[in-house]
Amino acid sequence: MPQWDNDLYYRFRAQRTQPAHDLVARIDLPAPADIVDLGCGGGNSTSVLRGRWPDASIVGVDSSEAMLTEARGTDGQTRWLKADIATWQPQRRFDLVFSNAALQWIPDHATLLPRLFTLVRPRGILAVQLPDHYESALYRVLLDVSHDPRWSSRMDEPRRSLTRNSLSFYYDVLRGSSEEIEIWKTEYHHELEDHQDILTFHRGSGMRPYLERLSEEEVPAFEQRVLEGYREAFPRQANGCVLFPFRRLFFLARA
Ligand SMILES: C[S@@+](CC[C@H](N)C(=O)[O-])C[C@H]1O[C@@H](n2cnc3c(N)ncnc32)[C@H](O)[C@@H]1O
Questions:
Q1: What would the pLDDT profile of 23-37 be if each residue is shown by its tens digit?
Q2: Ligand 1 pocket, mutate which of 3, 50, 67 (most atoms under 8 A from CB)
Q3: CATH class of 6-254
Q4: What whole-number distance in Å separates Cα of residue 123 and Cα of residue 41?
């Protein structure tokens, strides 16, 4: 898992938080008493939960101290907990187990998702959003550049750093144990000023494991190749802006 740079990650706070708003809007729970935000980061997704359910008891769980330090400054009412989602075993269950843009950093979803579902109380909900950009140029360009012989031998692990499964996989994994399930994809088209912004966006998240394998001297050459790929893949609009497509997968499973 990469080291998180909060400032970089949150340079695109609005774009990164929009999926949390969209997921929360579809949760049909009038007054969940206990909520957990898994991979809460700096607290942006947790704020969306707090905004909808101001009186709930909310726990934000994350493994990054830097992210949790930022989160603590956002909301004194929420309990912030440093833990690894892959092994975290709370003593109680929750009405809502929520996760926005975090579970892709954890392997083996065939084991993880059923385990997280056991943390949901009867009639409660597991609500998850994951990136689903693996067919897009954002990801293809990065993979292509990672095969450059100058660094390819160091890139096996970064190439495996994000867990990806199909919509059908998540349906099958959760449908048997859930009362009902809703599953969908949304493709956002973020308006960014230029291609450098796309690079900066990706640098703050999925590109981090790749950059961590490079020496300081190699980073500019790697990024320059990625930038060229983005210029080719994402044409400018008439006003000079770039529409940056980012598809995301969502599901709600009721216990
Ligand atoms: C992309 S950020 C998402 C932050 C926030 N939920 C949002 O909506 O923007 C992913 C977060 O997941 C956390 N994370 C990744 N793997 C984790 C793990 N195994 N256990 C706990 N947190 C983890 C990272 O530290 C990071 O803060």
A1: 999 999 999 999 999
A2: 67
A3: alpha beta
A4: 27
